[in-house]
Design a protein that fits this description.
Blueprint: H1 3-29, H2 35-40, H3 47-74, H4 76-108, H5 113-120, H6 124-134, H7 138-156, H8 160-174, H9 180-203, H10 213-223, H11 241-254, H12 259-262, H13 274-289, H14 294-301, E1 306-307, E2 310-311, H15 317-326, H16 329-371, H17 378-405, H18 411-435, E3 436-438, H19 442-468, H20 487-507, E4 513-514
Antiparallel strand pairs: 1-2, 3-4
Length: 533
């Protein structure tokens, strides 16, 4: 099939997709009358729909578009990291934390994670601190926008900057109105499409196995022996087991505390739906996380990772593979269009959740706190929320432009650095708030602050000292060298240090009480600032 036919077909597909999305948004917007409706919804959602929504927003374009590029570049070591250890720890963490967080989320009637933390510890200062840290999630928004831009611009053979600006205006524009009422349904549709596309992508390289699994690995090894080894010492992210396994397990456990993930269970109206919600989310996530394996198919398709002598960047590998694999013949074109739709859905599902959660945080946890609680009417809060989305859109366009033109290996590194810093700081406060019945404010506050400082210290300060002042940290030096550094090292170090500090503070404080299982049905105590001195 000629390229022109593929471009026309993709254009028609995008028009239909946009029309359906706008219809759902308009329908959901009619039931959105205040900020609570926007954040949590006013409609009844089935646990399966919410589970699909969670799976879609938790995996996103990072899993479908960005991470397979790392597998194409660095092979099996990247699969272990992004396809096995991080997903496994994240799923286990999600199951353990969801029920407790949901119960306490309902108890304190929180709309955002920052609000949950502030109310759990009765501290508006702590809530404001976490709200400002939540702005780091803008880096993840940029990742999704860049990934979607790569897919759409590649399929349309269009200018990436024009596509990026159009995409941001469209998505941020409709997210000003629908919120959760429309997002759950758009996410559900996207998740269903993503399941089908995941299966198509995973089966698209079966011909590489026609002579057996051993021959598949031999083909990869012939390209580069490192592609089939457990570690990749020359890579910036997968050099040893500490980096591949330990750091990713720590990050995976903490990754669940992102607002668009852990607050998803609050959309359920009945506690009996939680198990069905979790089963749905877990099964679908396993399918989604497996998609990173197509990075191998892409590497076998483009052994030297180039097309017509031009190198394929990490973030463009999946798009190049899809166009190469599915743009020929009527059947190939049809499947290719559906795959493009699935990749777009993978990005849109998370992008919507991030825009909703970050804008709600800006509105309810920053602006309303600064102005004064109760001083703004529901109508004014919705206007503020729409204005926040406009500002977010402008910032996203500027940062995405930079990442399109000059990424540091991948926009994934940029996004991980911001997002990992946020959930590193949020992890201990959420854990203590869920599993401890009584906890003085200074313990989670100090732990969060230390985590943020350690994360950015490890990522920026220590490498600077190593390079300019001959600092040395022994075997840890390897993680501080080079232009591309692994945010998982900074994050896991921050989480470990803040965990140790919190354990020490808990051990010397007599006011701490664990939330024992027999008392879990009771409302958790929240301490006033006076008790934290």
């Amino acid at each position: 099939m000629e390229n022109q036919a593929f471009v026309i077909s993709v254009s028609a597909l995008l028009v239909v997709y946009s029309a359906v999305t706008l219809y759902i948004v308009i329908k959901g917007a009619k039931k959105t009358t205040n900020l609570s409706d926007y954040a949590l919804g006013s409609m009844f959602f089935s646990p399966i729909a919410v589970g699909l929504s969670l799976a879609a927003s938790m995996t996103s374009a990072a899993t479908f578009v960005i991470n397979p590029g790392f597998i194409a570049n660095f092979g099996w070591s990247a699969v272990l990291s992004f396809g096995i250890f991080l997903p496994l720890s994240a799923i286990i963490s999600l199951v353990i934390m969801t029920k407790s967080f949901r119960k306490y989320g309902q108890t304190v009637k929180a709309l955002t994670l920052a609000q949950w933390i502030g109310k759990r510890y009765t501290s508006s200062t702590f809530a404001l601190f976490m709200a400002f840290l939540a702005l780091l999630l803008i880096t993840f928004i940029v990742l999704i926008v860049v990934a979607l831009t790569k897919v759409i611009a590649g399929a349309l053979q269009a200018d990436q900057v024009v596509v990026m600006i159009t995409l941001v205006v469209f998505v941020f524009g409709y997210m000003m109105f629908g919120g959760a009422n429309s997002m759950v349904y758009t996410n559900t549709i996207q998740a269903i499409i993503m399941i089908i596309v995941a299966l198509i992508l995973l089966s698209s390289g079966l011909d590489f196995f026609k002579e057996g699994v051993s021959n598949f690995w031999s083909q990869l090894s012939d390209i580069n022996p490192r592609l089939t080894e457990n570690t990749y010492p020359e890579s910036p992210l997968f050099r040893n087991y500490y980096e591949i396994i330990f750091a990713q397990i720590v990050v995976g456990i903490a990754i669940v505390v992102q607002p668009h993930i852990i607050t998803k269970s609050l959309l359920l109206k009945d506690n009996k739906d939680v198990s069905k919600f979790l089963w749905t989310a877990v099964i679908v996530q396993i399918i989604f996380f497996s998609v990173v394996f197509i990075g191998f198919y892409a590497r076998l398709t483009f052994p030297d990772l180039s097309i017509a002598g031009q190198s394929i960047p990490n973030d463009g590998i999946v798009q190049a593979y899809v166009v190469e694999r599915f743009s020929n013949g009527l059947l190939g074109l049809t499947i290719g269009l559906f795959v493009i739709l699935g990749l777009i859905g993978a990005g849109m599902s998370t992008l919507e959740g991030l825009v909703q959660s970050v804008s709600t945080t800006i509105t309810s946890d920053i602006i309303e706190v600064i102005v004064g609680k109760g001083k703004l009417s529901d109508q004014k809060l919705m206007i503020v929320n729409k204005s926040a989305i406009v500002v977010l859109a402008i910032i996203t366009i500027l940062l995405s432009y930079d990442q399109l033109l000059q990424p540091n290996l991948s926009v994934g590194i940029f996004a991980q650095n911001g997002v990992y810093a946020y959930f590193s700081a949020a992890f201990i406060p959420v854990i203590l708030g869920i599993f401890f019945r009584s906890i003085p404010l200074h313990i989670p506050f100090i732990s969060a602050a230390i985590a943020a400082v350690v994360h950015f210290g490890v990522y920026y300060v220590l490498p600077y000292g190593l390079e300019n002042f001959n600092w040395s940290f022994g075997t840890f030096d390897i993680y501080l060298m080079g232009k591309v550094r692994n945010p998982a090292i900074a994050s896991s170090t921050a989480i470990l240090v803040s965990s140790i500090i919190s354990i020490i503070l808990i051990s010397i404080n007599k006011d701490v009480r664990i939330n024992k299982s027999e008392n879990r049905k009771e409302q958790p105590e929240v301490l006033t600032n006076a008790t934290s001195s």
